[in-house]
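Our collaborator T.R. sent over the components below with a one-line note: 'Predict the complex.' Nothing else. No constraints on interfaces, no templates requested, no preferences about which chain binds where. So this is a plain run: every listed entity goes in together, and whatever single assembly comes back becomes the starting point for the next discussion.
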Amino acid sequence: MATVDPDTARTAALDAAESLFYARGVQSVGMDEIRSASGIPLKRLYQLFPSKTDLVEAYLRRRDTSWLLSLSRYADARPDPRGRVLAVFDWLEGWFAEPEFRGCAFVNAFGELGASSPGVVEAVADHKAAFHRYLAELARQTTPARADAARADRLAAQLALLTEGAITTAAITGTSEPARQAQAAARALLSMP
Amino acid sequence: MATVDPDTARTAALDAAESLFYARGVQSVGMDEIRSASGIPLKRLYQLFPSKTDLVEAYLRRRDTSWLLSLSRYADARPDPRGRVLAVFDWLEGWFAEPEFRGCAFVNAFGELGASSPGVVEAVADHKAAFHRYLAELARQTTPARADAARADRLAAQLALLTEGAITTAAITGTSEPARQAQAAARALLSMP
DNA sequence: CGATCGCGAGAACGCTCGTTCTCGCCACAG
DNA sequence: CTGTGGCGAGAACGAGCGTTCTCGCGATCG
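Returned assembly:
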């Protein structure tokens, strides 16, 4: 019988992995540091995640769902469809202002590990696809004309580019201004037929 | 007297560093691999660049100027101001289609090395600032109203977000479609007053 | 009550990598 | 012709890291 139950240990390990990997990148954080930050012994870490790669992928998958959940909870609260789209950028602005903000965890992992680890590539692609689906759903509700899936998709793709660009630019410049600039652009795109 | 003159050696080293660092990331490429790819002995590499960090920064700085030069040569050839702005996205589309394309070298380096190396952070910030200045110059020429610097800057910031987002998205999805989507959005933004 | 199993703590192993050192060689100065 | 200084090739060193192994302890089961 373990000192703590497997679920608690798994959560503790992923918590430590998330803050360390996100803050400093994957390659510069050793398993030993995750052990000391989480309090989970190395042996147990390797029982839960057979290799560091598995831990990295689990970190990305968990972050995918929690990130999108946090965003959608915020945006879905707005009553009108247009407001829900614009709320995405309000949410971004708050995220950018957090002191731990360091850009998109998925883009960072992709740039760092690149084509060398297919599991990471897949997790990153899945995250971007899920985000795009969410934006398309929001876009579809804005005007009757965009109930047409293709039209909604076209807008969603443009909104996704603005979001992606805002995240990256905010990370590099260290300001949250890109969220407001992206929102202004989104407003312009929304007003187009 | 050296086997090859310092300039040639420096160029060979930077050529090797550029293709290897860009293709696989900074941390997974060792100095020994740069030696064998460039033919420059390790000792000479360390004379030219006292540490790997120096080589990384020199790689980013050289790529900054050549990237912007290539883009501006392409876009500046267009006769009308609006066409110059839209040409940026044509150029992106060609870049995305190259087999070696792997996203923005600066974003990748930033995500990988993060706050740990101030020189890299500075090089990345300088690159983004230079690109923004170039876009602002293009924007200023589009309409008389945007001769006003603040208005041109506002448009340039939005175009920069679209570009950044397109580069990242193209890298992850492996298609050059984001260039066309970004261009469509840019067209819409240009048509706004 | 004694044997056994699973656990935590951390040492150990094998590998990689940034950086430096050694050594033999060639070109040139005196 | 001989001494010297810089060069290339590559060994060497020291640190870090992913992963596994050892050991001692505490609980569990017959």
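Summary for T.R.: Chain A has two domains: 1-50, 57-191.
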